[in-house]
Structures are given as C-alpha cells and as structure tokens.
Amino acid sequence: PVSVGMSLDIASIDTISEINMDYTATIFLRQRWTDERLCFDGNKSLSLDGRLVEMLWVPDTFIVDSKKSFLHDITVENRLIRIYPNGTVLYALRITTTVACSMDLTKYPMDKQTCTLQLESCKM
C-alpha cells in the first residue's frame, strides 16, 4: 500500500443553491506520496509539465456526492507535478466542483445548514 498525504484549500464558495440542494466551490487539492522508482541523484526537485501526469501513477481520489466537477485548463491544465530526489511526488490541481448538500429548510430563515466536502479513494 502507498500512504498518500493530502491537503485541501477552498479558494472560493461560488454558489449555494437551495433549489438544487447543492453548492459549488473551487478548491486546491494537494497530494504527496513516495515512489522509490522515481529516486534520482541531486538536491533539487524537478517540476514537470502537467501533461506528463499520464505517465505516472496518481491516486484515484474522487469527491463524494459530486454532481459535476472540472479541472481548470486555461491556458494549460492547472496541475503541478514536482518530484524530489528521494522519490516523493507532490501532485497539485485546481478543481471546481458542484456537490450535493441535503438542506433542511423547515426553520427558514432561522435555519442553519452544514454541508460537507468529502474525498475518498477506491481501493482495489
């Protein structure tokens, strides 16, 4: 098994829809793991073009309850891959996602809603 560290920053909450029971947010997702096959001599990291991600193993992370998501791609996909001499890989991307959120509006306008943003990965 590969241990994957993750961090997530919410850049913006773009919309909240009571009618559709969802919200849209833009997030920065960073994942870090070590792959000994990528070790190299040196003391500086290598930053790779995001298009090279197809050549590497990356975690199969998905957003639970996502209705629709997309990676930003102006002018190229907003993905970063940095490889360190010890084989540690940093993989970062910017995603906008619309996520389902069941809301109880029976006490409107005195209601309080809690919406979650959950990430998971499939294990095979």
TrEMBL record:
Membrane topology (UniProt): Multi-pass membrane protein
GO terms under cellular component: synaptic membrane
Primary location: membrane
Domain of life assignment: Eukaryota
InterPro entries attached to this UniProt entry: Neur_chan_lig-bd, Neur_chan_lig-bd_sf, Neur_channel, Neurotransmitter_ion_chnl_CS
Keyword terms of this UniProt record: Ion channel, Ion transport, Membrane, Synapse, Transport
Keyword Ion transport (UniProt): yes
One Pfam family per UniProt: Neur_chan_LBD
GO molecular function: extracellular ligand-gated monoatomic ion channel activity; transmembrane signaling receptor activity
Record has Membrane as a keyword: yes
Compartment annotation: Synaptic cell membrane
Family, as annotated: Belongs to the ligand-gated ion channel (TC 1.A.9) family.
Protein name, as recorded: GBRP protein
Classification lineage: Eukaryota, Metazoa, Chordata, Craniata, Vertebrata
